[in-house]
Amino acid sequence: PDSAAVLALASHKATMIMPPLQLLALLVLGLNLVTFIIYWFDKWMARANSWRVPELILWLLALLGGSVGALLAVELLRHKSKKLSFQLVLWLIILLQLGVGAGYYWLQFS
Length: 110
Known about the structure:
Blueprint: H1 3-17, H2 20-47, H3 55-77, H4 84-109
Helix pairs in contact: 2-3, 3-4
């Protein structure tokens, strides 16, 4: 079977079970939980002087929608809280997301 058709069918079945907005909210919540766990894992590995999760991966998780989980990890776990270069990129990602959100809102409701 065509992979696009399978994906379309799976998407249709998912929206029959749960409305799209609720499905999106659940996916974003899950991504933020995964992001927080990966930041925790990286903090744990740092304390053990072991292999680390690359910063690019941590930023990518935030960019894909896990920025709340990333911020919570930075604040609650005190992970990457002193590394200003990491903080700068993380805040630029958050500002980008806020700008995209504001632009979308403006286009929809103005």
